[in-house]
Amino acid sequence: MVKARKYVVKNYFEGYPKREDYEIVEYELPPLKNGEVLVKVEWVSVDPYMRAYNSRKTLPYDQSGFQVGLVEESKDPRYPVGSRIISHSGWCDYCIIKTFNSSETIWDPYKLPKLQGLSNSLAIGALGMPGATAYFGFLEVCKPKAGETVVVSGAAGAVGSLVGQIAKIKGCKVIGFAGSDDKVKWLEEIGFDRAINYKTADIAAALKEAAPNGVDCYFDNVGGEVSNSVISQMNTGGRISVCGAISSYNGPSGATGNIPLMTVLYKQLLIQGIYVDRWFDRLDELIKDGTEWIKSGKLQPREHITEGFENIFDAFVGMLKGDNYGKAVVKL
C-alpha cells in the first residue's frame, strides 16, 4: 500500500483563504484497477480559478489543480512505468489516475508532450492550461491584426504575461496593467510597449496617454475599475476577451463594477467570456507554436517556483495576493 497526502477544503473562503480552511489528509491508496496508474506528483499548479470556484463546491472537497506526475505503477499500456502524465488530480503527493473516460477531471489525463528539453513544469504553465487560455483566448476571440493596440490587465500573471508577448509576436502595440513598479519594469523588459501600475496611476488618464488612438483588443483578467476604464476607451469594433475577474475574488461579493454598456452599444464591441476546455483538442497547436517561440526567445515564460508539499497553500495565497511574476507552480 502507498500512503498519500492531499489537501481537503473544509470551509467556504471568506476573503483570502486561510490555512484552517484546509486539512491535509493522509490515507492509503487502494490497489490499481485496469485503466489506472499510480503517480508520484512532481509539479502542482496554483491558479486563481481555485478561489473563484470555492463557493460553487460542496464541502468538503479535494482541492483540484493541474499537476505533472511520474508513473510508478501502471495498468494502462499507454502510460508505462517511468512515463509522465498531466492531469487535474489536485494538491496531493501521490494519486491514482483513471486514464479511461474519467469524469473526475476538467481535462482527460494526457501524456507529457515533447518539450524539446524545456522544463516539465511548463506543461502546467505556458504549454498547458494557462498557455492555452492565453493563446486561444486571445487569438481566437480578439483576432488581433498587426498594428492594433492591445491592452492586458493582470499582465504580470501566468496568462496575462503570455498574452502580451503573443500580441507582440503578432505585431501589435501592447499595454499592460500590473500591481507594482517592479512588475511594470519586468513587463517592459519582456517587450510590452508600456506598462502601468494601476495602484498608483490615474488609470483612465494613464491609458489615454499610452493609447491616444484608442484600444482595439482587450484581454481582461481582473474586472473592476481597470476594465471599465479600458472599455470606455475602446475603438469601434473592438474585441474583448474576458478571462477572469480576480479583483473581486476575495471581496465580500462578486461585483466588479458597472460595465459601460452604452459604450458597448455605440462602439459595437464584442465581449466574449472564455473557458479553455473548448480548445483542449487543439492543444498540439499551442505546443508547436509555444515551444518554437520559447526556444527562439520570442516568448519568455517566467515561473514563480515554491518548493515542498507543505507549502502549496502558501504558494496559492501568495499568488492571489500578487506575489508571483508569471506562473506560480510548486515543486514537490
TrEMBL record:
It is an enzyme of class 1 (oxidoreductase). Signal peptide: none annotated. It is found in: Cytoplasm. Transmembrane segments: none annotated. Keywords: Acetylation, Cytoplasm, Fatty acid metabolism, Hydroxylation, Lipid metabolism, NADP, Oxidoreductase, Phosphoprotein, Prostaglandin metabolism. It comes from the Eukaryota. GO terms for molecular function: 15-oxoprostaglandin 13-reductase [NAD(P)+] activity; 2-alkenal reductase [NAD(P)H] activity. It catalyses: 6-trans-leukotriene B4 + NADP(+) = 12-oxo-(5S)-hydroxy-(6E,8E,10E,14Z)-eicosatetraenoate + NADPH + H(+); 20-hydroxy-leukotriene B4 + NADP(+) = 12-oxo-20-hydroxy-leukotriene B4 + NADPH + H(+); decanal + NADP(+) = (2E)-decenal + NADPH + H(+); pentan-2-one + NADP(+) = (E)-pent-3-en-2-one + NADPH + H(+). Belongs to the NADP-dependent oxidoreductase L4BD family. This is Prostaglandin reductase 1.
